[in-house]
Amino acid sequence: VQLVESGGGLVQAGGSLTLSCVWSGITFREFAIGWFRQAPEQERVGVTCISSNSGNTNYAASVKGRFTISTNNANNTMWLQMEDLTPEDTAVYYCAAVSPWFGSDCSWGAFYFYGQGTPVTVSS
User: Fold this and answer.
1) Which pLDDT score, from 0 to 100, does residue 12 have?
2) If DSSP states are collapsed to H, E and C, what string results for 43-105?
3) b/e for 95-122, b at 16 or more Cβ within 10 A?
4) Which pLDDT tens digit goes with each residue over 57-92?
5) Would strands 9-12 and 118-123 be described as parallel, antiparallel, or unpaired?
6) What do you get for the CA distance between the two ends of the chain, in Å?
7) Over the stretch 101-110, which tens digit does the pLDDT of each residue have?
C-alpha cells in the first residue's frame, strides 16, 4: 500500500488549508483511511478517519467542527479540509490506512499503513 500526501504548508492562525492523499495498492473493498498528525516532540495521534463500509467518520475532539474528511474512492483520493487553524495544529500530517477493515467505525489503533507525511505550520 502506498499513500502520498500533499498540500501542507505555512498558514496564519484562523486560516484554512486542505490536504490531499492519493492511495494505491489497497486491494480489498473494505478498508479504513484517515489522518494522523505528529507535533514536535509529541507522539503521533489520530485526527480523523472514515470506514469505507459505512462512511462513518471519527474525529479527535480537538478538531471536531473545524476539520472535515472526505474521500473519492473511485479516484483513490482523500482530503482533509482544515479551517480555523491554530498554532496547536502545527504538525506533520500523515495519511493512514488499514485493509481489510470490516468495522463500521474506524479505530485509531488499527491503522498500520502510513504515508511520508506533509508538514503544516500555523503561525500566530
Assistant:
1) 98
2) CCEEEEEEECCCCCEEECCCCCCCEEEEEECCCCEEEEEECCCCHHHCEEEEEEEECCCCCCC
3) bbbbbebeeeebebeebebebebbebeb
4) 999 999 999 999 999 999 999 999 999 999 999 999
5) parallel
6) 37
7) 999 999 999 9
Mean pLDDT of 3-27: 97
* All cell numbers assigned to 108: 485509531
| Residue in the structure block whose three cell numbers are 475532539 | 61
Which three cell numbers, joined as nine digits, stand for 12?
496564519
| CB 8, CB 122: distance < 8 Å | no
Distance CA 21, CA 118 (A): 10
